[in-house]
Structures are given as structure tokens and as C-alpha cells.
Design brief:
The complex is a heterodimer of chains A (about 170) and B (about 850). The N and C termini of chain A lie far apart (about 65 Å). In chain A, strand 4 and strand 5 form a beta hairpin. Helices cover about 30% and strands about 25% of the residues of chain A. In chain A, the strands form two sheets. A four-stranded antiparallel sheet of chain A has the order 1-8-3-6. Chain A has a four-stranded antiparallel sheet with strand order 2-7-4-5, with no helix packed on it. In chain B, helix 18 packs across helix 30. Chain B is about 60% helix and about 10% strand. With about 850 residues, chain B is of the alpha/beta class. Chain B contains 34 helices and 14 strands. The chains are: A alpha+beta (about 170), B alpha/beta (about 850). The interface between A and B is medium-sized, with 29 and 34 residues.
Chain lengths: ~170, ~850
């Protein structure tokens, strides 16, 4: 008999696919392979039907989502009116901040069509990260870069149009 | 009026000898009478055989005396056996009665006693230490009587044979009686220390077990070990000293009794040589003297048991000799039915060390009034609540419940009228139902009906939990057989009406489909094992199944899956701590990981075929656990799925042919034994990580259960759920809800809640609050120690406590307007 290993197919497992997807996300870009493997292993694929909410405005949940397939809509309700803020396409990573600490959802995230997400919960994320204490500063740097980058971009391109919002700027000075 | 019996701790050890044992002791004496005669008789026969039968050469006499000798020996053995039997019976009856009486006494001791003493010491006293005194009681009459009589008979016989020889050889015993007690006194002192140390030791062990979370949390293993070390060492020393003295008594005794024959040989030999003693008489004397040794030895042993029993008994009883400040139950009347008024006058409470926890508390509540006790922690709220529930004895000041002084009310009066829910309620090992009915059963009043129980479950918000327990309970054909037909109807309805809607989130059991959320073992069997060798964990050890896998050419394929799984898992989890969080999505447990790591190392040098059978089967077992939906580290491949699916059918045929009934195959028209009831209804795997969908499914199932009139049956099954040790299978919130339900079921006139809702989420807390306002206001008086200030507004009155005093009392509006202590507490200032 041949070595039995040769008989198996070469198709990648869900874990391997997850790992590949995570490596392409900015939020995780600073991480070496070892912690990413654990995130890929601990993350769970979830399937949402069109119209189903991943999370709702005002909720406190502690999950980040990586959109694997499909399309998601971000909404905000105020004064009884629901406004669509933006759409997310496959490859988007949403809710990384909720992996770092409690944060109330300011938006509702809804599946625009049947969508598959890789969901990572804070408890799992932080327990896994504890195994790699040296990675925390890199993660903070990523978050700092994102906030400063966003504000810089806003100041350069959109500050002129936003009128009364100028005095409220300065989130990067937090 | 019956005369109250003295408490067990005041009873002497001797009082147990006759009480309740009189007929047995009398029987024992009768048997002993016969026994003594049968022991002396052979001596006389010996003498006659030598002197008369052998001396006169008469064979008839030899036979006659020989037969009498044999009969006496036989009867003596039977009597001895009977005596031991009756002694054991008396000892065990006494032990049971002592335990019962001691437990009865200990349970009623004031709560403070248990704070000061470790539970382990009580366990040791009741379980171990009472055995020695009860053994003494068993032998207390028989041993001295039987042995003294035997001893005296032998002594008399010896005197009759030869007075001079007898007096000389018996002179040893008074000497022994003077020396032995000296040694025994040393043994007693050591034994006393041993009893105390054993109690401390047991207490310490129990304490460590209770605090095992702290020990593990702080990795305080060495610290604990050192705490034990000192005790073990002291116990070792004291036990050695004790044994030295005990064996000293025995050895000294042996020495004295061995001197006997020496004297007889010396003196008897001299007399025989001079012709003053017959040879037969010397033989009889010698053997009679030897026989003195047995009863004497037993008397000495009994003396030791008596001394040990006395010391152990006295030490144990002294330990528990604490008086309870209140009676347990009224002797001359049924428990009082109090009206719900409550008055506290000038109440002070001091701890043993003199710290004043309450000072001059004045309070008056009308029946049905609700009072919230608030204040900073350490202000005395809980102490006051416990005083009101009679758990702390009132020493200064008075408390009146329904106009009766609480110090004069018995425990039963309080239990019948007052319900206390503490912050950390205790649950007993057993079912949910046992714990729910605990308070009602204790009262021995009419028990609540199922409707009453269900109503309380709804009120406290426990209904959904109990229902869930019921739905998660495994279906047991023997116990739940009656609901099987309805269950199948609910299953059918669920399939018809909701099957399509949940097709994406439920993997229905379909004989023609590979189940992604079932293991390979479950996929092969497609059923539940009715014989243990087919249970999934045992499948890899089932030779029949292995044969089958070989015939299907699946064995190597599966071992290969095992190798790939082991490789991936060790790669991902190999350096992580052995925590559930990390291993929950792995087919391998943390304990198994090093074993598989070793197997993988071997595979670097060898081919899979060269592995040992043990390693191969372990890899097969790992593969059989593989569940694609849960264990994402491997892709099984469509071709292998198809082959497993084809094998499923053939395996079923083989099992049905060779071992019918060994597996209950999934059948849409039959219940699945040992699988949760919910799974029996859904008839499939609910996909994980979708709490909202699972909630929806649950609601639909509940609706269907109501339609088919099955809800109560499931709730009843849920009430049979085991709560675990101290309720550890329930969440903190569930424990509190259960504790509240347990008290509400007995409808107390006065309800004392000591932060009873602190572990509940906001919704459950609001539910209990609404319940108090709508159903209990005006009906029952409520005193609630409350930590969260946002729920106190509806209370009739609020008492704010500070440093053991009530600093202000009034309605919420009044106190807030006054801008005093409550205002400050609420953080408004």
C-alpha cells in the first residue's frame, strides 16, 4: 500500500483560509504569524441572511467582523430616521476597537445580501494576545496610526466642507 | 408534658450502655452464663481423663469424658460467636444513635459556632471519633462480666485443686493491676492530644478544599502543604507516643502473665517430686492457669478500650458543648402564625471581640410595609437583617415580630413566618426541585402544587431557565417514555412549519447527507449507542468496527486524517496554556497534546504503517472525533465524505443483522435516547455561534410545546436537573433566583432580602422589584438590604445606615429633599 498521506486532496481548510484573510488586514499587519494562527483558529465563520443585523446601534458587544463574502450596510438611526452611512465589501474588517475594550455600537451593521463573516470575540482575542505580551505596543501603534491617519485625511480633504464641525475636531489629540 | 432529654453533650458515656439496649444486654448476660460454664468444664474433663480414664484404663470413661469435652468446646465457640454478634449489634446501634443525637445537636448550634470552627472538625467528630466510644458501649457489660466470671471460676477451680499453688500464682495479678494503669494514663494523655489534633487536621483539610479556587488562583500549593506539614508532624509524634504507651500496657501484661507458668513449674514440680501433688492435678493446674491468660488479656484490652472511649467521648462532647440561645421548636404548641409588624428597640450588636456593629437601632414597620436598608458597606445593613431573621442572637435591645419578642420565639416560629434570602444563597446537592421545595418541606406544612411552583418560577424569572434545563435533559426512554408520542408530534410540526426557515441554521438528520456538525463517528453510526462499545469514545476500541473500517478501506484513510489533525493542532495549540477557551474548538484535549506530539516525532522517522497499534488506534480515535463544523483546522474532502456516507448504510445493515438493538439509529418517527430533548424535537444539529437564531428556535419550540400541551412535562423534567455541589451547575443569577423562589413558595409574612438580587441582570432585577411592588406590597412586610440606589424609590421607607446607626429614615422623596445622607450616598453632592 502507498503511503496513505498522498491520497488526500489539497483543498485548504477553513483555518488556512482564515489565516490568509487575516494576513491581509491592516489591523493585524504588525503581527507575526504565531498569534495570527491562533486568531484564525479561534475566529468563527458566521452566515447572515439579507436584512439580518450583525450588531445594532446602542448594543454593547465585543466582536470584530471580517467580511469574507457578501455586502454589509452600516446604518445610523437618529430622530426616528435611519440613514445609510456606507457599505462594506468583501475583505473589510469592522469593529477592531471592540477587541480592545468595551464600546457601545454607534451604528447598526446589517447584511445587504447573504454574507459570511469571520467573527472574532474579544475574550478569545485578548486571551490569545496574552500569550504574546510583546505584541501589544504594535497593536496600539496600529490604532494610533489609524486615528491620526483618519483625521489628517479629513483635515486635508474635507475640513473645508464640514462647516460648523471644525471646533469639534481633534480626536487624534485624545 | 414530656420531660426534655438532656442534650447529648451532657450525657455520660455510661448512660448509653443500657438505654435502648436493655433486651440485648439481658440476652448477652444469659449467653455469657452458658459460656462461662462451657469454659470451665473442659478443665475438669481433662483432669478426669488423666486421673480416672487413663489411670484406671477405662475406655468407656475416656469416650464419655472426651465427648463431654468436645460438646463443651463446641458450645463455647458458638457462645463466643453469639457474644461477639450481640456486642457488635449493640455497638452499631449505639453508634447510629450517637451520630443521630450529635448531628441533631450540632445542626441546632448557633450560627456563630460554625464561623469559629471548621466544618471538617465536625465531620471528623461525627464520622470517626464516635466509633471507639460506641465499641466500648457494645462490650461494656459483656466483656467484664464474662471475663471476670471466667477468671473467678478458674481462680476458684485452682484454689480447689491446690490452694498454695493457686495463691502463689494468682499473686501476680494484683501487681499487674497496680502497674498497668500508670502506663494507661500516659496513653490517655496522648490520645487526648490525638483527638484534638485529628479534629484540627480534618478542619484544615476541609478548609483547603473549600478554598481550592484561591489555592489554584495563587498557586499556593507549597504554602498549603507547609500548613499541613506541621500538623502531620505533630500528629505523627503524638500517635507514636500513644502507641508506645498502648503497646507498653500490652507488653507489661504479657510479661506478668508469663511469670505464672514459671511459678507453677517451680512450686508444682517440687510438690510433685515430693509426692504431695498428683501428676493429673499438675496438668490440670497448668492448663487452667494458662487459661487464666485469655480472660485477663481481654479484661486488659477492654480496660484500654474503655479508657480510649472515655477520652474520645469526653473530648468530642466538650467540643460541642455550646448552648443554643433559642429553642428549635415549641414543645407545647404549634408554630405561631405572626402578623407582619416589626419593631426594633434600642438594638445593639457587638462581635465577640467587642466591635460594635449596630448601635441603638430603632425601627417600626406596619404589616405589609416595605423598607429598604441602604448605606456604605460595613454600615451594618446585613448584620441588622440577620438579627431580624434571628440568625444573630440579640443581646442588647429587643426585636418584636408581630408583637412577639424574637428572643422568645423558637426557630420554627421564625421559619413559619420569616423568609430570608441571603446574598450568597446556599444550594444543596440534589435536583432543582429539592432546592425549590427546601423551605416548604422543612415546615412540614401542605406542599405547594405544581401550579404554585410554576407561578413562582414565572414570577422570579426562573421559568425560562428551568425550561431550558428540561430541553437540555437527555431523553430517557424509561423515565420520559410517556411523552415520546407528543414529542414526535412536536418534531413533525417543527419540520413542517419551520424546517425550510431554519434550513440554513439547523443541520437536520438526513440519512443521505453528511453531517458537518457531527463527528465522523456519529456520521458513521447515524444514531445513538445503546451498548457502550458503540459509544463514540469507545468506537476506536471496538474490534468489529475496526474490521468493518478495514473492509471498507477506510482505516488508513482515517488514521491519515488523525495524523493531519494532530499535526495542525500541535502546530496551532502546542505552545498555549491548557485552557478550555483554546481547546474548545480542537478534537484533542490539552492532556492528550504531549502524547500526540510524541507520535508525530516518531512519524518523522517512520511511516504510518510502522506505528504501534496503540498509536494507530489513538490517531483513529482522534479522527473519529473530527467534526468539520467545529474543528476548522482540516478540510475532509468531498470524496472521503461520500465514502463515509456509503459506509454508514453498510454499517447499519451489519449492526442490525449481527447486534440488533446495539444502536438506536436516527429515525424521524422515533425518539433518540440519551440526546437532549431539544435535539429530539429539532432532529438535527443547531449551528453554533448564532445566539439570536437559537433564541428564535427556542421560542418556536416553546410555542409548539404549549400547543401540544407538553410544556409542563418539560418543566417538570427541568426541575429534576441536578444543581451540582453547592449549585455549581447554575449561574450566580440562577442561584439567586432559585433562592428567592424557594422563599416565596412558603409565602412568608415577613421577607428579609439581603442584597438578594445583586447577581441578577437589570431585567431580572426589575422583574423581582415589580413582583415585590405588585404582589407583595401590603401583603408581606419586606426589609431589603439594597446596594443599588436606582431601585429603592418605590419602597415605603428607606433607612440609611452609617457606622452601625440609622442616620435617617423616610420616603425616597423626603430624604432626597432633605439633602442628607441618602442624597450624599446617591452621589448628588
Amino acid at each position: 500500500m502507498n503511503s496513505p498521506e498522498s491520497a488526500e486532496p489539497e483543498r485548504g481548510s477553513e483555518y488556512e483560509e482564515n489565516l490568509e484573510l487575516l494576513r491581509q488586514i491592516d489591523f493585524f499587519s504588525g503581527f507575526p504569524l504565531e498569534p495570527l494562527k491562533i486568531f484564525a483558529y479561534l475566529g468563527a465563520r458566521q452566515r447572515f441572511r439579507a436584512g439580518e443585523a450583525l450588531f445594532e446601534q446602542g448594543e454593547e458587544d465585543a466582536t470584530a467582523f471580517l467580511l469574507v463574502a457578501g455586502r454589509l450596510r452600516l446604518e445610523r438611526e437618529s430622530g426616528g430616521r435611519t440613514r445609510t452611512i456606507r457599505f462594506f465589501e468583501a475583505g473589510a474588517f469592522i469593529g477592531g476597537l471592540s477587541l480592545l475594550g468595551d464600546c457601545r455600537r454607534l451604528y447598526t451593521l446589517r447584511a445587504e445580501e447573504t454574507s459570511v463573516c469571520l467573527a472574532l470575540e474579544r475574550e478569545k482575542f485578548s486571551r490569545a494576545l496574552e500569550q504574546f505580551p510583546g505584541q501589544m505596543p504594535r497593536l496600539f501603534q496600529t490604532v494610533v496610526d489609524a486615528i491620526v491617519g483618519w483625521e489628517e485625511n479629513f483635515l486635508e480633504k474635507m475640513a473645508e466642507d464640514c462647516g460648523g464641525c471644525i471646533p469639534r475636531l481633534g480626536v487624534s489629540l485624545l | 408534658m414530656p420531660k426534655p432529654r438532656p442534650p447529648i453533650v451532657k450525657r455520660s458515656l455510661a448512660s448509653w450502655i443500657f438505654e435502648g439496649n436493655l433486651p440485648w444486654q439481658a440476652l448477652l448476660l444469659a449467653v455469657i452464663g452458658v459460656f462461662v460454664v462451657t469454659r470451665v468444664l473442659p478443665l475438669e474433663m481433662q483432669k478426669r481423663i488423666v486421673n480416672e480414664a487413663i489411670g484406671r484404663r477405662e475406655v468407656d470413661l475416656l469416650f464419655a469424658y472426651g465427648t463431654t469435652y468436645l460438646a463443651a468446646v463446641l458450645l463455647s465457640s458458638a457462645c463466643k460467636y453469639g457474644i461477639q454478634l450481640i456486642e457488635t449489634l449493640i455497638a452499631q446501634r449505639t453508634l447510629a444513635r450517637m451520630r443521630r443525637a450529635l448531628l441533631e445537636h450540632v445542626l441546632r448550634l448557633p450560627v456563630g459556632f460554625f464561623r469559629e470552627n471548621q466544618p471538617g472538625s465536625v465531620v471528623n467528630a461525627v464520622v470517626n471519633e464516635l466509633a471507639v466510644p460506641s465499641n466500648f458501649v457494645g462490650a461494656a457489660l459483656s466483656t467484664p462480666v464474662a471475663n471476670l466470671f471466667t477468671l473467678l471460676s478458674f481462680a476458684g477451680y485452682l484454689l480447689w485443686l491446690n490452694p498454695l499453688l493457686a495463691v502463689v500464682s494468682l499473686a501476680i495479678y494484683p501487681v499487674a493491676m497496680a502497674v498497668l494503669p500508670l502506663l494507661q494514663r500516659g496513653a490517655n494523655r496522648a490520645n487526648q492530644k490525638r483527638v484534638d489534633l485529628s479534629r484540627t487536621f480534618s478542619g484544615r483539610i476541609a478548609e483547603s478544599f473549600n478554598g481550592i479556587h484561591e489555592i489554584h488562583g495563587h498557586a499556593a500549593f507549597g504554602l498549603e502543604q507547609r500548613r499541613f506539614e506541621e500538623l502531620i508532624e505533630r500528629l505523627r509524634k503524638v500517635r507514636i507516643v500513644w502507641s508506645l504507651f498502648r503497646y507498653g500496657v500490652k507488653s507489661a501484661n504479657n510479661f506478668f502473665t508469663s511469670l505464672g507458668p514459671f511459678i507453677v513449674f517451680l512450686l508444682g514440680g517440687w510438690l510433685a517430686i515430693r509426692g504431695e501433688l498428683e501428676l493429673g492435678a499438675l496438668v490440670a493446674f497448668l492448663s487452667a492457669q494458662e487459661k487464666l491468660y485469655d480472660p485477663w488479656k481481654e479484661l486488659i484490652e477492654f480496660y484500654q478500650v474503655y479508657q480510649e472511649g472515655k477520652v474520645t467521648y469526653r473530648r468530642t462532647m466538650e467540643f460541642f458543648d455550646v448552648e443554643s440561645p433559642v429553642e428549635v421548636a415549641p414543645l407545647d404548641r404549634p408554630p405561631l402564625r405572626l402578623e407582619g409588624s416589626l419593631q426594633v428597640r434600642g438594638l445593639d450588636f457587638l462581635t465577640e471581640s467587642g466591635i460594635r456593629l449596630l448601635q441603638d437601632i430603632q425601627l417600626a414597620l406596619r404589616p405589609g410595609e416595605h423598607l429598604a436598608l441602604v448605606g456604605f458597606s460595613g454600615s451594618g445593613k446585613s448584620t441588622l437583617a440577620l438579627c431580624l431573621a434571628q440568625l444573630h442572637a440579640v443581646e442588647e435591645g429587643r426585636i418584636f415580630l408581630g408583637g412577639h419578642d424574637i428572643a422568645r420565639l423558637t426557630k420554627q416560629d421564625i421559619a413559619a413566618n420569616v423568609g430570608l434570602v441571603s446574598q450568597h444563597p446556599f444550594l444543596f446537592e440534589g435536583t432543582l426541585r429539592d432546592n425549590l421545595l427546601y423551605a416548604c418541606r422543612a415546615l412540614a406544612a401542605p406542599q405547594p402544587s405544581l401550579d404554585d411552583i410554576i407561578a413562582v418560577l414565572h414570577q422570579t424569572g426562573l421559568f425560562a431557565d428551568v425550561l431550558r434545563f428540561g430541553l437540555n435533559a437527555p431523553f430517557d426512554p424509561e423515565r420520559h417514555g410517556a411523552i415520546a408520542p407528543s414529542l414526535i408530534r412536536v418534531r413533525r410540526k417543527f419540520q413542517e412549519k419551520f424546517g425550510a426557515r431554519f434550513a440554513e441554521v439547523v443541520e437536520f438528520y438526513d440519512a443521505a447527507a453528511y453531517l458537518e456538525y457531527s463527528s465522523i463517528a456519529e456520521n458513521l453510526l447515524f444514531g445513538t449507542a445503546c451498548r457502550t462499545e458503540f459509544a463514540p469514545p469507545r468506537l476506536a476500541a471496538n474490534d468489529g468496527v475496526i474490521d468493518f473500517l478495514v473492509r471498507e478501506a477506510l482505516l488508513h484513510r482515517l488514521v491519515n486524517v488523525g495524523i493531519r489533525l494532530a499535526r495542525q493542532t500541535v502546530d496551532i495549540l502546542g505552545n498555549l496554556p491548557p485552557e478550555r477557551l483554546f481547546f474548545a474548538q480542537s478534537p484533542m484535549t490539552a492532556e492528550e497534546l504531549p502524547v500526540f506530539r510524541r507520535t508525530l516525532e516518531q512519524l518523522r522517522r517512520r511511516s504510518p504503517e510502522q506505528l504501534s497499534r496503540e498509536d494507530t488506534l489513538r490517531l483513529l480515535e482522534l479522527a473519529l472525533r473530527f467534526t468539520p463544523g467545529t474543528h476548522k483546522m482540516l478540510e475532509l474532502g468531498d470524496e472521503l465524505r461520500a465514502r463515509l456516507l456509503a459506509a454508514r448504510l453498510r454499517l447499519r445493515r451489519e449492526i442490525e443483522r449481527d447486534l440488533p438493538g446495539a444502536v438506536a439509529f436516527y429515525d424521524p418517527e422515533a425518539p433518540i435516547p440519551a440526546q437532549p430533548i431539544l435535539k429530539n424535537i429539532v432532529f438535527g444539529n443547531t449551528l453554533p455561534a448564532r445566539p439570536r437564531i437559537q433564541e428564535q428556535i427556542l421560542q418556536i419550540v416553546v410555542q409548539l410545546l404549549i400547543e401540544k400541551d407538553l410544556l409542563e412535562a418539560i418543566v417538570e423534567i427541568g426541575m429534576e436537573a441536578d444543581v451540582g455541589t453547592q449549585g455549581d451547575k447554575l449561574s450566580g443569577g440562577q442561584r439567586q433566583k432559585l433562592a428567592i423562589a424557594r422563599v416565596l413558595l412558603k409565602s412568608p409574612r415577613i421577607l428579609i432580602l439581603d442584597e438578594a438580587t445583586s447577581a441578577l441582570d437589570n431585567r431580572s432585577q426589575t422583574r423581582i422589584q415589580n413582583l415585590l411592588e405588585t404582589r407583595w406590597k401590603g401583603r408581606s412586610t419586606v426589609v431589603a438590604v439594597v446596594h443599588r440606589l436606582d431601585i429603592i424609590e418605590p419602597y415605603d421607607r428607606i433607612a440609611v445606615m452609617k457606622a452601625g446607626k440609622i442616620v435617617e429614615i423616610g420616603t425616597f422623596a423626603e430624604l432626597m429633599a432633605r439633602k442628607g445622607a441618602l442624597y450624599e450616598l446617591a452621589g448628588k453632592r
